[in-house]
Structures are given as structure tokens and as C-alpha cells.
Amino acid sequence: MLIVSMKVARAFRVTRALLLSTLAIAAPLRAQMYEGRQLVKPELVADTNAIVPGKPFAVGLLLRMAPHWHTYWKFSGDAGLPTEIKWHLPPSWRVGEIQWPIPLKTNDPGDIETYGYENEVLLIQEVTPPAKIELPKDGFAVANNSPVTLTAEASWLVCEKICIPGSATLSLTLPISATNAAANTELFDRYRKLLPQNWPRDKVATVKWSRNGADLHLQVNSAMLAEYPATDFFPVPPPAVLVGHPSVESRNGNEVAFKIPLENADKNLSSLPGLLVFASRANADDRAAWRISGASEVASLPHPVATRGLLTFLFFGFIGGFILNLMPCVLPVISLKIFGFIKQAGQSRTKILRSGLAFTAGIFAWFIGLALVLIALKAAGREVTWGGFQFTNAYFVLGLSIVVLVFALNLFGVFEVSLPQSMTRGLLSTSERKDDLGSFFQGVFATVLATPCTAPFLGTALGFAFTQSPAVVLSMFVAVAAGMSAPYLLLSVQPAWLKFLPQPGAWMLHVKQFMGFLLLATVLFLLYVLGAQRGLDGAIWATCFLLIVAIACWIKGVFIVPTASAATRRTSLVLALILLLASGLYFIGDKFHAAKIDIGEAQLASDWQPFTPERLRAELGQGHAVFVDFTAAWCLTCKFNEKTVLETAPIRDAFERHGIVKLKADWTSGDPAITKLLQQFGRPGVPLYVLYPGKSKEPVVFPELLTKSILLDKLETIATVAGIGDPGGADVFRHQAGRGQRPRLQSQ
Amino acid sequence: MNTKLLLTAVTALIGSPLYAADVPPVGSAAPDFSLTDSKGKTHSLSQYKGKYVVLEWFNPECPFVKKHYGSENMQKLQQEYTSKGVVWLTIDSNAPGTEGNMTPEQAQKVTSSWKTHQTALLLDPESKVARSYGAKNTPDMIVINPEGKIVYEGAIDNKATPNPSDIPSSTNYVKAALDESLAGKPVSNPTTKPYGCSVKYKSS
Prior knowledge:
The complex is a heterodimer.
Chain A: E1 33-34, E2 37-38, E3 40-46, E4 57-65, E5 70-77, E6 84-88, E7 94-95, E8 104-108, E9 112-118, E10 120-128, E11 148-159, E12 163-174, H1 185-193, E13 205-212, E14 215-222, E15 230-235, E16 247-252, E17 255-261, E18 274-279, E19 288-292, H2 295-299, H3 310-324, H4 331-344, H5 349-379, H6 388-391, H7 394-412, H8 421-427, H9 431-450, H10 458-466, H11 470-493, H12 495-498, H13 507-558, H14 566-594, H15 599-602, E20 609-610, H16 613-621, E21 626-631, H17 636-646, H18 649-657, E22 661-666, H19 672-680, E23 688-692, E24 700-702, H20 708-722
Helix pairs in contact in A: 3-10, 3-11, 4-9, 4-13, 5-9, 5-11, 7-13, 10-11, 13-14, 18-20
Chain B: H1 3-18, E1 34-37, E2 42-44, E3 53-57, H2 63-70, H3 73-82, E4 87-92, H4 104-113, E5 120-123, H5 128-133, E6 137-138, E7 141-144, E8 150-154, H6 173-182, E9 197-198
């Protein structure tokens, strides 16, 4: 009766042709025999009959178990082990995390609760082939159009009264083709229906966690639940957390409360990831589930902004503000200001000083105003970050392009700004005053344009400020404003330096007009941003409205002038306003508002993969090193870094050589998942460059102005430390090992 | 008479033999027990007060147990620590009629053919001791200090696999707990999730 020697399941070799036309098992497989029966029949299947380069497809590990024997879910419960799949894919192929169907919950004598599958289970994973499938001469296939063989080692534990471990090396051969058709549709559909869904909108269901001593309490409210007699919570605890058996505490119509005892958890653990499962009865085939993500998981991400003193951060704010003057998006306005200084060169000291002070006041007014708005919004509980909260909003970008266009037309001389005479008389009795007001608004304008370019230092400084009290936020913005205005203030206090500037003359008109073109270039950039947010249609409708705005400006310049009769001015004004209002309603309120970006357009070129927290977790889970580029269409610094560093040949080679997965987190429209991650890194906006070396290593954050040497240096050192250059490393495809040490993301 | 209290008491009385009690947490007093070993000798926990005691839940049929015996990992641990004065009690709590339940003769055969080095292999066919410790797996490991307090409970090591080739690269929690305790230090990793087969309790 006793098995005395170490005798794991007998291995035997089977070579057989599979019935499924597109599949073939090439490698021998090891299966388990117990009392003359094969306990588990493993098989790899795909949802396609051919591989189309660059097009993701699904593969599934199909395990067929002997009656009453079961394999386990990703959290196996009190006993058992999750099934593991280790892929051997050609380089630059990617495989996603296992998509686990909702398991069955069983309770064995002794109150042993396990989560697993009976009879049959399909574990689906998404495979992304590279856009260009290159077949290396060693190992895989050689000739063009020849099929690709994907190999995976699967290992599982199958239990009935006793448990027997099993494993098999399986392979799947598919041809490469430009087109494909669906395969195994019924099987994949059946198991896709059993996959948990993301948590629904707040209107549909809400979740509330609380902690009471060693117990977690989960309260779920949803009208959906009333239709399902059986509800349960299946936990997916992080590796270091030991959970007891969740139980339903109370059930009252739409509301279910669960108690989840914790056996060794951190005092601060306030929630657990898991599934809310509902069905007509426990373990019924109609079971469905929503993923619950443990909010506390998010908090455990490393927070790079640590304990630097307030003064240091204020200093960084000042420096950052100064550097804002050099950012590409501010340059056109800066040229305007320099032009103003040139004009003033011959004038009196006090006049210049006043102008400089007014410009400074404009900068301060904008930053303080922004700080107050942010503080108010923060107090109202909204998630706000700087820069993004403006530039991720398409209407803000549209508004800004209108302002810039109007400025450009003004520079071209299409119209002149003349304040109403009454106002001029009342408020601006002298021309100096009028200049001051102009300088003030130039200051405001320069800063509005500066916000999307989060300059070096400024990111850290503001990131720090956002975790602080309103007073600190305000002082930080003041520091930034001081930094930005410092050079102008200096020039106005030291007008001697202005004397080095050339004398005013006819050339000034030409420069003024030329500046207009620079502003038009800025409009183009803003339209590009709108295009990225709202698609080509959105950008075109915005342009239509801009044209009407330009016509309105022209009407103003030609007919609404002091020399025209009162009647002409009134008619023209009404006409211009009607034009603006009608076209605004049509082009913006209707067309632009309805314009949505086409998913096809948003697809990423080249070898960058779109970022999702799940994707990041999956790649890290497979032991891959991951580089994340947090970017946005409106971020010129990002574009600059991408063109001059990230997309250059040496960097691309280095990424390829070290097998680093490149994810692009596009924040153009303010994806909340990305916002959250940015905040975790203490950043209020993009750019942000992070390298996750994989395994237990801390993520590396790069400076906002990337250089090739910084990046290459880091890649080399990290590659040596973490051994990421070796994709064949022992634990690379393990789903379990070392999960706890990695930075965790909000999941499920 | 408070009916609610009475009901609770009755439920507790009926419930306790049927279901495994909650695991006594690390730091609490180890529940006392008395069991006979494969040779018919009685051992109680209290008789070993003043010594470190290791409890190891056992099932000769379980691949996870076989992982550690087939590689002689468990025997080496038993030998190393019993020679340092630690009492090592291996417990078979599997109910009669389930896989892994042993008669005293079978138990003796296992100890001799597997060349084990525990202080005693105890038979717990009614799963009483497993219940009082909330043991759910084989192997499930508990370390008790000379004062009779639990200082470690959980897995034998950090690699939850049935594969013996994982042993060299794994961290042995029991060894770490014993080394730290014997050196007078607190156990740095006192609770882990045990892995393995389930303890085969009697169907109720």
C-alpha cells in the first residue's frame, strides 16, 4: 500500500495527431496514470487557424480531468497548487497573464476550502506575435510561410482523495498568414463566458471595505445581486497575506456583507483583491463574477518622493519655473516679451520697471489662481493633477488655440486691440497703464502655455506639493512663478542690460508679423493635440470654428474701428457675434463634441505596446523587464525625448538586446489608471520614464529630459544586476515565484 | 436563562468536534495533547516542556511529503535538530479509510524504510490534534518554544511545489525559525501559508 520511494507520476510518451485541423502536438507529453487511468489530458488550442503578424490571438491550455479529480485556481485555497504555464516563445513574442475562469469552491471534511475546476478547464492567454515574424535559424522554423511552433510547459496538481502532480511539454503549430479565421469558437466562447468581469460603474454596484481587528468586512451594494440567490467572495490574497474563509455575514435585498478573517496580515491592510461571485446556486454553471481590486495594493507602490525638506522643494520649484522659460511651448510668447523689451529700450526706467512688474504680476496671478483652483478641487475630493487636468481636456486645448490664433491675427495687423473709450478713460488714463495691462496679460499667457511642459525639477517639486497641505501647494506655485518671472524682473530692474538691445524701427513691424507665424505654429501644435484626442474629424471641426473666429477678428479690424459710424459698428458687432455663436453651436457644440477618436487611429506604430496596469503586471509576472514611457500628444518634451532618445537606433537595439518590454502609457486624454500611477511616482504630469527591472528590484525613474547616455548606462547596469539579458532564466515564466516582492499595481 | 448564550454554547459544543478550530495564532499557548506512537508509547506535549518541539503533519501518500522525504531533506532536518535537543513529533492525522492513514505496523515500516529521524511518529486517527492546531495540510509545520508557546506555524519552505529539485533553491522556514529561536532571537517570519495536500479528516 505504501509508496516508499520517490515515485512521481509515471512518465510516458504519446505521439498523436490531434483532431483539430490546425493543431498538432509535436513534442512528447508526459501525463499521469493512476490506477490505469490517465488523470489529466492536456492540450494546447488556439482561437485562430493562422498567425497574422502583429495581431494578438488567444491560446488556451485545455485540461481534461478524470471524473471527480480537480485542478486549481490561481488561489488554490487551503490546499492544492495553481496550474502553471511556462512558455518558450521566440524572442519578441509576448504572452499575457492567464485568464482564469471563475472557479468552483469545494469544502472537504475538516473545513478545508479549495478553489478549482472539475472535469475540464481552459486557461486562456493572449499571445502577441511581433509585427514582423522573423524565424531564427536555430530551433524554430526556417523557410518563409512555414508554420510556427509555440511550446509551453504546463504543470499542475490534480487531486481527488489524494493529490498527484503532473506536467507536460505541449506545443501548438500554426501557419503564418496574412489572413486568419476563428477556430475552436465554441470552446473559447464557453470559457470566456466564465471569465470575471471588471467591476461595473458606481451606478450598478458599489463596494465598501472596513477593518475590524483581524477581520475585513466587505459590503457590496447592487440591484443585480437581488436576482442571484448565491453570492460569495473568492479572495486572491497577496503572497504574504493568509486569509481565513470568507463568509456571508448578512444579506438584505441588494446588499451583501462578507466577513474575511485575516490570519497574519499587516495592521494597515484594509482590503483584498478577489472576485464577487454570484450565481443561481453555489458553483452553478451560470456563475458570473466581478473583480474587486484591493485598494491598499496601490498604496504599496514605491513612492520616490520621500523626505526632502520643504525648502529644497521650493528651491526646485523656483529652478523649474526658471527653466519653463526655455520650454518649446513657451518660446513664442517669450519672443513676444523680448520684443516688448526691445520696444521699451529707449524709454524711462520707471516705465520699464512697471512693465516688468506687470508681466511678473501676470505670471504670479496665473499660478496663484491655478493653485487656488487646485486646492478647491482637491478639497472637493476630485483627482487633479497639474498640466494634465488642463491639457487632457479637449475644450481647454480648443480654447487655448482660439486665444493663440487671435493673438497671431493681432500680430499680423488684422485687427488692433482698442479698449472701449469709456474704460480707457476711467481706468487707463495714461498710455503707461495700458502697457501695464498688456504686460500683465502677456505674463498670464506665457504661463498658460508653459503648463504642459513639466520641466525637470518642477515635476518633483509639484509632485511633492500635491501630497501637502493647501499652504504648501500655494507656496510651491508661488516659487514656480518667482522662478519663471525672475529673468524679466531682473531685466526691468537692470535696464542697463536692455540698452544692449537694438533701437526700435521699421524692422519691428516685420518681427511682429514673423512672431505671428510662430503663434500659428503653436496653433498647429494644439490642433495636433486635438487630433490625438478627438481624431481627424475633431481637429477639422475645430479648424472650421477657428476660421470663423478669424473672420470675426477681420470684421472687428475692418468695421469695428473708431472711425466707423456707430451704426456700422453695431451691425458688424451683431453680425460677428451671430457668426461666432452659430458656428460655435454647430461646429463645437455639435460636431466637435460628438467627434471620438477611432480606435484604429490610436493604434501604436512600431514595437511599443499600449500600457494597462494588467499588462504591466502580466509582463512583470513573467519576469520581463519593462520600460514605461508616460507620454501625451500635447507634451513636447515627451515628443522631443522620443525622437532624440527613445526612437534612436542605439536605444532601440539596447532595449531589444536586453529583452525589455516597451509600454507606452498615453495620457493624452487623461486615462485615470495612468493618472493614478503618475501620482504614485509623485508626478503631476508627463513625461515620466520608468524602468521596472523585474523580479524584486525597485523601479528606476529617469530624469524628464532623457539623454542617450543616461538611459544606456542604466540599462547596462540594471541588466547586469538583475540578469534581464537572459530570457531563459529559471524563473522567468513562473507565475508564482517572488510575486510578493514586485511592486504591485491595482489589479483585477 | 439567556437563550442566546445557551444556543451559542450548544452550537460551540456540537460544532467543535465537527469542524477544525481556528488556528491558534503564533504567540499563543500550544494546545496540549497525548498520542501513541508507532510503537505504542504515549507522548504528550506537556512532558516536553522546557524543550523546543517541532510538529510535522504527515501523509506518506502525499507528493508534497514525498518531495521532502524522497530528497532526504526532512530526514536531514530531523537529524540536525534532534541532535541539538529539539523534540520532533511527526503526526499522521488522516482518518481511517482515507489515503495516508496508517496502522502502527505500517508506521513502523515507513520510519525504517524511509530512514526517518524524528523523536516519534504519532498516530492521530481521530484528527483531534490536527483540529486543535487547525492543521490543514501535509506537511504543515509548527515550532513550539520551551515555554509552550507557538513561535512558528506554516509551510516548510517558500517553494510551494511538489518538485524535489526546488529544494536546494528554497528558503527553509522551519530551519530559520529553529536557528533564530536557538540563538535567542525572535522568529523573523513566524507565519506563512502552508502548502501541500489536505489533511484527510473523517467525513462528517
